[in-house]
Write a structure and sequence with these properties.
The chain is α/β, with parallel strands linked by helices. The chain is built from 13 helices and 15 strands. It folds into three domains: 158 residues, Cytidine Deaminase, domain 2 (3-Layer(aba) Sandwich); 134 residues, 3-Layer(aba) Sandwich (Cytidine Deaminase, domain 2); 48 residues, no CATH class. Helix 1 runs antiparallel to helix 6, helix 3 runs parallel beside helix 4 and helix 7 packs parallel to helix 12.
Length: 392
Protein backbone atom coordinates (compact mmCIF):
# COMPACT_ATOMS: atom_id res chain seq x y z
CA UNK A 1 0.00 0.00 0.00
CA UNK A 2 1.55 3.26 -1.18
CA UNK A 3 -1.03 5.68 0.22
CA UNK A 4 -3.38 5.96 3.20
CA UNK A 5 -6.27 8.41 3.17
CA UNK A 6 -6.99 10.09 6.50
CA UNK A 7 -10.25 11.47 7.86
CA UNK A 8 -8.64 14.91 8.31
CA UNK A 9 -5.35 16.55 9.26
CA UNK A 10 -4.44 18.02 12.65
CA UNK A 11 -7.96 19.51 12.91
CA UNK A 12 -11.33 18.53 11.38
CA UNK A 13 -11.28 21.52 9.03
CA UNK A 14 -7.97 20.47 7.48
CA UNK A 15 -8.96 18.39 4.45
CA UNK A 16 -7.96 16.56 2.38
CA UNK A 17 -5.43 14.54 4.37
CA UNK A 18 -3.32 11.52 3.53
CA UNK A 19 0.08 9.93 4.00
CA UNK A 20 1.94 8.46 1.04
CA UNK A 21 5.39 7.48 -0.25
CA UNK A 22 6.70 9.97 -2.79
CA UNK A 23 8.98 7.39 -4.40
CA UNK A 24 6.08 5.03 -5.11
CA UNK A 25 7.22 2.36 -2.65
CA UNK A 26 4.96 0.74 -0.09
CA UNK A 27 4.27 2.42 3.24
CA UNK A 28 6.31 0.83 6.06
CA UNK A 29 3.15 0.47 8.17
CA UNK A 30 0.16 -1.86 7.91
CA UNK A 31 -3.16 -1.01 9.52
CA UNK A 32 -4.25 -4.09 11.47
CA UNK A 33 -7.33 -2.48 13.02
CA UNK A 34 -9.08 0.88 13.29
CA UNK A 35 -8.35 4.02 11.35
CA UNK A 36 -5.29 6.14 12.23
CA UNK A 37 -5.45 9.91 12.30
CA UNK A 38 -2.85 12.46 11.24
CA UNK A 39 -1.56 13.06 14.79
CA UNK A 40 -1.74 9.32 15.53
CA UNK A 41 0.72 8.68 12.72
CA UNK A 42 3.05 11.47 13.82
CA UNK A 43 3.12 9.94 17.30
CA UNK A 44 3.52 6.42 15.92
CA UNK A 45 6.43 7.15 13.60
CA UNK A 46 8.28 9.28 16.16
CA UNK A 47 7.62 6.79 18.92
CA UNK A 48 8.80 3.83 16.86
CA UNK A 49 12.11 5.56 16.16
CA UNK A 50 12.52 6.26 19.88
CA UNK A 51 11.92 2.70 21.09
CA UNK A 52 13.94 1.05 18.33
CA UNK A 53 16.91 3.26 19.19
CA UNK A 54 16.47 2.59 22.91
CA UNK A 55 16.68 -1.13 22.26
CA UNK A 56 19.81 -0.74 20.15
CA UNK A 57 21.47 1.42 22.81
CA UNK A 58 20.60 -0.68 25.87
CA UNK A 59 19.95 -4.17 24.52
CA UNK A 60 16.57 -4.24 26.30
CA UNK A 61 13.03 -4.02 24.96
CA UNK A 62 11.51 -0.55 25.19
CA UNK A 63 8.20 1.27 25.19
CA UNK A 64 7.04 4.85 24.98
CA UNK A 65 3.77 6.66 25.58
CA UNK A 66 3.29 9.57 23.15
CA UNK A 67 0.92 12.53 23.30
CA UNK A 68 0.86 15.32 20.73
CA UNK A 69 4.19 14.43 19.11
CA UNK A 70 6.20 14.27 22.34
CA UNK A 71 6.72 11.37 24.75
CA UNK A 72 4.95 11.48 28.10
CA UNK A 73 7.14 8.59 29.19
CA UNK A 74 9.77 6.16 27.88
CA UNK A 75 11.33 3.12 29.50
CA UNK A 76 13.22 -0.12 29.05
CA UNK A 77 12.05 -3.51 30.29
CA UNK A 78 13.39 -3.72 33.82
CA UNK A 79 11.41 -5.46 36.62
CA UNK A 80 9.15 -3.29 38.75
CA UNK A 81 9.55 -2.94 42.49
CA UNK A 82 6.47 -3.56 44.64
CA UNK A 83 6.07 0.19 45.11
CA UNK A 84 6.37 0.89 41.38
CA UNK A 85 3.79 -1.80 40.61
CA UNK A 86 1.43 -0.15 43.08
CA UNK A 87 1.78 3.42 41.78
CA UNK A 88 1.41 2.21 38.17
CA UNK A 89 -1.79 0.31 39.10
CA UNK A 90 -0.44 -3.09 37.99
CA UNK A 91 0.08 -4.72 41.39
CA UNK A 92 -2.98 -6.89 40.79
CA UNK A 93 -1.46 -8.43 37.66
CA UNK A 94 0.78 -11.46 37.76
CA UNK A 95 4.46 -11.08 36.95
CA UNK A 96 4.89 -8.82 33.93
CA UNK A 97 6.99 -9.68 30.91
CA UNK A 98 9.93 -7.34 30.17
CA UNK A 99 7.85 -5.63 27.47
CA UNK A 100 4.91 -5.30 29.83
CA UNK A 101 7.21 -3.78 32.44
CA UNK A 102 8.57 -1.34 29.87
CA UNK A 103 5.08 -0.09 29.02
CA UNK A 104 3.95 0.01 32.65
CA UNK A 105 6.94 2.26 33.34
CA UNK A 106 6.42 4.42 30.26
CA UNK A 107 2.74 4.89 31.01
CA UNK A 108 3.29 5.24 34.74
CA UNK A 109 5.84 8.04 34.65
CA UNK A 110 3.17 10.67 33.98
CA UNK A 111 -0.18 8.92 33.92
CA UNK A 112 -2.19 12.12 33.51
CA UNK A 113 -0.27 13.12 30.38
CA UNK A 114 -0.49 9.54 29.06
CA UNK A 115 -4.29 9.54 29.14
CA UNK A 116 -5.33 8.81 25.54
CA UNK A 117 -1.78 8.04 24.44
CA UNK A 118 -0.32 6.41 21.36
CA UNK A 119 1.92 3.50 22.29
CA UNK A 120 5.13 2.37 20.60
CA UNK A 121 6.82 -0.95 21.37
CA UNK A 122 10.28 -2.08 20.26
CA UNK A 123 9.22 -5.76 20.13
CA UNK A 124 6.15 -7.71 19.04
CA UNK A 125 3.28 -7.11 21.44
CA UNK A 126 2.78 -10.08 23.77
CA UNK A 127 -0.36 -11.09 25.66
CA UNK A 128 0.83 -9.61 28.96
CA UNK A 129 1.39 -6.19 27.41
CA UNK A 130 -1.91 -6.34 25.53
CA UNK A 131 -3.79 -7.11 28.76
CA UNK A 132 -2.11 -4.15 30.44
CA UNK A 133 -3.00 -1.85 27.54
CA UNK A 134 -6.58 -3.13 27.47
CA UNK A 135 -7.17 -1.51 30.88
CA UNK A 136 -5.95 1.94 29.88
CA UNK A 137 -7.45 4.80 27.87
CA UNK A 138 -5.34 4.83 24.72
CA UNK A 139 -5.77 5.86 21.08
CA UNK A 140 -3.53 3.30 19.43
CA UNK A 141 -0.34 1.29 19.20
CA UNK A 142 2.52 0.59 16.80
CA UNK A 143 4.75 -2.46 17.08
CA UNK A 144 6.80 -4.71 14.76
CA UNK A 145 4.30 -7.55 15.28
CA UNK A 146 1.59 -9.00 17.50
CA UNK A 147 0.98 -12.36 19.12
CA UNK A 148 -2.35 -13.61 17.71
CA UNK A 149 -4.01 -13.59 21.15
CA UNK A 150 -2.59 -10.14 21.92
CA UNK A 151 -4.00 -8.79 18.65
CA UNK A 152 -7.47 -10.11 19.48
CA UNK A 153 -7.33 -8.49 22.93
CA UNK A 154 -6.38 -5.12 21.46
CA UNK A 155 -9.03 -5.29 18.72
CA UNK A 156 -11.73 -5.21 21.41
CA UNK A 157 -10.68 -1.75 22.65
CA UNK A 158 -12.75 1.33 21.79
CA UNK A 159 -15.68 -0.82 20.67
CA UNK A 160 -13.51 -2.45 18.03
CA UNK A 161 -12.06 0.81 16.68
CA UNK A 162 -8.70 0.79 18.46
CA UNK A 163 -5.92 1.80 16.07
CA UNK A 164 -3.37 -0.99 15.64
CA UNK A 165 -0.39 -0.46 13.35
CA UNK A 166 2.36 -2.88 12.40
CA UNK A 167 5.71 -1.39 11.40
CA UNK A 168 8.23 -3.09 9.12
CA UNK A 169 11.31 -3.26 11.42
CA UNK A 170 13.58 -3.50 8.38
CA UNK A 171 12.35 -0.24 6.87
CA UNK A 172 15.11 2.32 6.30
CA UNK A 173 13.94 5.85 5.40
CA UNK A 174 15.62 8.03 2.82
CA UNK A 175 18.62 9.97 4.12
CA UNK A 176 17.02 13.31 3.19
CA UNK A 177 13.64 14.39 4.54
CA UNK A 178 11.19 17.11 3.50
CA UNK A 179 8.22 18.94 4.96
CA UNK A 180 6.17 21.96 3.99
CA UNK A 181 5.29 25.03 6.04
CA UNK A 182 3.12 27.77 4.51
CA UNK A 183 3.69 26.32 1.06
CA UNK A 184 7.48 26.39 1.48
CA UNK A 185 9.36 23.08 1.29
CA UNK A 186 12.07 22.41 3.87
CA UNK A 187 14.81 19.85 3.24
CA UNK A 188 17.36 18.41 5.64
CA UNK A 189 19.36 15.28 6.28
CA UNK A 190 17.72 12.92 8.77
CA UNK A 191 19.10 13.04 12.29
CA UNK A 192 20.96 9.74 12.11
CA UNK A 193 23.20 10.40 15.10
CA UNK A 194 23.81 7.24 17.13
CA UNK A 195 23.40 7.62 20.88
CA UNK A 196 25.34 5.06 22.91
CA UNK A 197 27.95 4.85 25.67
CA UNK A 198 30.54 6.60 23.50
CA UNK A 199 28.55 9.84 23.76
CA UNK A 200 29.18 10.12 27.50
CA UNK A 201 32.97 9.83 27.70
CA UNK A 202 33.80 13.54 27.94
CA UNK A 203 33.33 14.09 31.67
CA UNK A 204 34.03 17.70 32.61
CA UNK A 205 33.42 17.69 36.39
CA UNK A 206 35.76 16.80 39.24
CA UNK A 207 33.63 13.77 40.05
CA UNK A 208 34.16 11.30 37.19
CA UNK A 209 32.49 8.18 38.63
CA UNK A 210 29.91 7.07 36.07
CA UNK A 211 28.34 3.64 36.78
CA UNK A 212 27.33 1.49 33.80
CA UNK A 213 23.66 1.57 34.86
CA UNK A 214 23.78 5.36 34.71
CA UNK A 215 25.13 5.20 31.15
CA UNK A 216 21.92 3.39 30.15
CA UNK A 217 19.88 6.08 31.88
CA UNK A 218 21.82 8.78 30.05
CA UNK A 219 21.08 7.03 26.75
CA UNK A 220 17.39 6.89 27.67
CA UNK A 221 17.43 10.62 28.43
CA UNK A 222 19.13 11.65 25.20
CA UNK A 223 17.20 9.31 22.90
CA UNK A 224 13.96 10.50 24.48
CA UNK A 225 15.02 14.10 23.88
CA UNK A 226 15.87 13.30 20.26
CA UNK A 227 12.13 12.79 19.68
CA UNK A 228 10.74 15.44 22.05
CA UNK A 229 9.65 18.87 20.83
CA UNK A 230 12.39 21.36 21.77
CA UNK A 231 13.45 23.01 23.97
CA UNK A 232 13.40 19.87 26.08
CA UNK A 233 14.86 18.40 29.25
CA UNK A 234 14.47 14.85 30.58
CA UNK A 235 14.95 13.35 34.05
CA UNK A 236 15.63 9.59 34.18
CA UNK A 237 15.98 7.06 36.98
CA UNK A 238 16.17 3.27 37.05
CA UNK A 239 15.58 2.69 33.35
CA UNK A 240 12.73 5.12 32.76
CA UNK A 241 12.02 8.77 32.11
CA UNK A 242 10.41 10.23 35.23
CA UNK A 243 9.97 13.81 34.04
CA UNK A 244 9.94 15.31 30.54
CA UNK A 245 9.73 19.04 29.87
CA UNK A 246 8.90 19.69 26.22
CA UNK A 247 8.49 22.69 23.96
CA UNK A 248 9.41 25.47 26.35
CA UNK A 249 11.01 28.65 25.02
CA UNK A 250 13.28 28.98 28.07
CA UNK A 251 15.56 26.15 29.18
CA UNK A 252 15.11 26.89 32.88
CA UNK A 253 11.36 26.52 32.36
CA UNK A 254 12.03 23.12 30.74
CA UNK A 255 14.13 22.14 33.73
CA UNK A 256 11.47 23.29 36.19
CA UNK A 257 8.63 21.59 34.32
CA UNK A 258 10.46 18.30 33.99
CA UNK A 259 11.69 18.57 37.59
CA UNK A 260 8.16 19.14 38.87
CA UNK A 261 7.03 16.01 37.00
CA UNK A 262 9.93 14.03 38.46
CA UNK A 263 8.96 15.27 41.93
CA UNK A 264 5.37 14.17 41.34
CA UNK A 265 6.58 10.71 40.29
CA UNK A 266 8.56 10.44 43.52
CA UNK A 267 5.80 11.88 45.73
CA UNK A 268 3.43 9.19 44.51
CA UNK A 269 5.70 6.70 46.30
CA UNK A 270 5.38 8.42 49.67
CA UNK A 271 3.50 6.53 52.43
CA UNK A 272 0.90 9.31 52.58
CA UNK A 273 -0.06 8.51 48.97
CA UNK A 274 0.40 4.74 49.01
CA UNK A 275 -1.95 4.48 52.00
CA UNK A 276 -4.76 6.73 50.78
CA UNK A 277 -8.12 5.21 51.86
CA UNK A 278 -9.74 4.79 48.45
CA UNK A 279 -13.37 3.85 48.02
CA UNK A 280 -13.70 0.62 46.03
CA UNK A 281 -15.71 2.37 43.31
CA UNK A 282 -12.99 4.87 42.33
CA UNK A 283 -11.48 4.24 38.88
CA UNK A 284 -7.75 4.43 38.12
CA UNK A 285 -8.07 7.62 36.07
CA UNK A 286 -9.93 9.33 38.92
CA UNK A 287 -7.26 8.17 41.34
CA UNK A 288 -4.61 9.71 39.10
CA UNK A 289 -6.43 13.04 39.04
CA UNK A 290 -7.03 12.96 42.79
CA UNK A 291 -3.40 12.16 43.60
CA UNK A 292 -2.26 15.04 41.39
CA UNK A 293 -4.30 17.42 43.54
CA UNK A 294 -3.44 15.77 46.85
CA UNK A 295 0.34 16.07 46.39
CA UNK A 296 0.15 19.70 45.25
CA UNK A 297 -0.74 23.06 46.74
CA UNK A 298 -4.34 22.72 45.55
CA UNK A 299 -5.06 19.84 47.92
CA UNK A 300 -8.11 21.67 49.31
CA UNK A 301 -9.85 21.00 45.98
CA UNK A 302 -10.03 17.34 46.96
CA UNK A 303 -9.95 17.45 50.79
CA UNK A 304 -12.74 19.98 51.26
CA UNK A 305 -15.90 18.78 52.97
CA UNK A 306 -18.27 17.43 50.37
CA UNK A 307 -15.36 16.53 48.05
CA UNK A 308 -13.24 13.95 49.87
CA UNK A 309 -16.29 11.78 50.55
CA UNK A 310 -16.55 11.08 46.80
CA UNK A 311 -13.23 9.19 46.66
CA UNK A 312 -12.10 8.32 50.20
CA UNK A 313 -13.63 6.24 53.00
CA UNK A 314 -12.07 8.57 55.58
CA UNK A 315 -10.56 12.04 55.20
CA UNK A 316 -6.77 11.83 54.71
CA UNK A 317 -4.41 14.15 56.54
CA UNK A 318 -2.95 17.01 54.53
CA UNK A 319 0.37 16.13 52.88
CA UNK A 320 2.03 19.36 53.94
CA UNK A 321 4.55 21.32 51.91
CA UNK A 322 7.20 20.61 54.55
CA UNK A 323 6.49 16.87 54.41
CA UNK A 324 6.59 16.89 50.63
CA UNK A 325 9.90 18.75 50.60
CA UNK A 326 11.39 16.26 53.06
CA UNK A 327 10.24 13.31 50.95
CA UNK A 328 11.58 14.81 47.70
CA UNK A 329 14.96 15.23 49.38
CA UNK A 330 15.16 11.42 49.62
CA UNK A 331 15.23 11.01 45.84
CA UNK A 332 18.82 10.47 44.68
CA UNK A 333 20.97 9.41 41.73
CA UNK A 334 18.68 10.92 39.09
CA UNK A 335 20.01 11.55 35.57
CA UNK A 336 19.32 14.82 33.75
CA UNK A 337 19.61 15.20 29.99
CA UNK A 338 19.25 18.37 27.93
CA UNK A 339 18.83 18.66 24.15
CA UNK A 340 21.04 21.78 24.06
CA UNK A 341 23.56 23.43 26.37
CA UNK A 342 22.61 24.90 29.71
CA UNK A 343 23.23 28.65 29.45
CA UNK A 344 23.25 29.24 33.21
CA UNK A 345 23.98 27.35 36.40
CA UNK A 346 20.40 27.91 37.61
CA UNK A 347 19.37 24.80 35.68
CA UNK A 348 21.80 22.73 37.73
CA UNK A 349 20.55 24.26 40.98
CA UNK A 350 16.94 23.40 40.09
CA UNK A 351 17.91 19.88 39.02
CA UNK A 352 19.73 19.28 42.31
CA UNK A 353 16.46 19.87 44.18
CA UNK A 354 14.99 16.86 42.36
CA UNK A 355 17.82 14.50 43.21
CA UNK A 356 19.96 14.88 40.09
CA UNK A 357 23.44 13.39 40.44
CA UNK A 358 24.37 12.89 36.78
CA UNK A 359 24.04 15.32 33.86
CA UNK A 360 24.43 14.93 30.10
CA UNK A 361 24.30 18.03 27.91
CA UNK A 362 26.00 19.17 24.70
CA UNK A 363 28.18 21.90 26.21
CA UNK A 364 29.31 24.85 24.15
CA UNK A 365 27.87 27.76 26.12
CA UNK A 366 29.98 30.83 26.81
CA UNK A 367 29.09 30.13 30.45
CA UNK A 368 30.13 26.47 30.51
CA UNK A 369 32.52 27.30 33.35
CA UNK A 370 29.60 28.58 35.46
CA UNK A 371 27.56 25.44 34.75
CA UNK A 372 30.51 23.15 35.59
CA UNK A 373 31.12 25.09 38.80
CA UNK A 374 27.48 24.62 39.80
CA UNK A 375 27.72 20.87 39.12
CA UNK A 376 30.96 20.61 41.10
CA UNK A 377 29.38 22.41 44.05
CA UNK A 378 26.92 19.49 44.33
CA UNK A 379 29.50 16.77 43.53
CA UNK A 380 27.64 15.89 40.32
CA UNK A 381 29.05 13.99 37.38
CA UNK A 382 28.52 15.91 34.15
CA UNK A 383 29.52 15.01 30.62
CA UNK A 384 29.47 17.14 27.49
CA UNK A 385 28.09 15.13 24.58
CA UNK A 386 29.03 17.68 21.91
CA UNK A 387 25.72 16.95 20.11
CA UNK A 388 22.62 19.13 20.04
CA UNK A 389 19.34 17.23 19.68
CA UNK A 390 16.69 19.76 18.64
CA UNK A 391 13.47 18.25 17.28
CA UNK A 392 10.66 20.16 15.55
Amino acid sequence: MNELELKYGCNPNQKPARVYMEDGSDLPITVKNGRPGYINLLDALNGWQLVSELKKATGKCAATSFKHVSPAGAAIGLPLSDVEAKIYWVADMKELTPLGSAYARARGADRMSSFGDFISLSDPCDVCTAKLISREVSDGIIAPGYDPEALEILKKKKKGNYCILEIDPNYVPAPVEHKQVFGVTFEQGRNNIVIDANMFQNIVTKNRALPSSVVDDMAIAMITLKYTQSNSVCYVKGGQAIGIGAGQQSRIHCTRLAGDKADHWWLRQAPQVLNLPWKDTVKRVDKDNTIDLYIGDEYEDILADGKWQNVFTTKPAVFTREERKAWIAKNTDVVLGSDAFFPFGDNIERAFKSGVKYVAEPGGSVRDDNVIEAADSHNMVMCFTGQRLFHH
